[in-house]
Amino acid sequence: MEEMNTAETIGPIVATADPVPHALTESSVLHNATAHTELKASIVALQARVRQLEAAVEEMRSVKASAEVQPAAGRKTVPFAQVSLLAKGATEQPGAPSVDDALHSLSIEQRIAVKSGLLRAGFMK
Fold this sequence. Notes:
By secondary structure, the chain is mainly α. The protein is built from five helices and no strands. The protein has helices at about 1-15, 25-70, 80-85, 95-100, 110-120.
């Protein structure tokens, strides 16, 4: 009797269940194959892009390393004003503390007059 109750209980469940729940139809197999092929193509494209990006990063690293090794290329020529002063025999920059030291013995009015004359002549900036 107990067996009968179990059969009666399971009977409606078995009757409504799909006999082959995951039956593969031809269209589903074709769809899965196409999706798989598209997925593989996407993976290959992404791997190629990763290789390109890795190469670009490596190139940037090598450029950065070479830039750190080489000194900065700044101006290596002397300005024209300094060249002309050096040609005249001046060894110092005009307006250096030595001018103030030389004018120390003069009065303030005389210092101002001498410095303004040097400025007009172009010996001081």
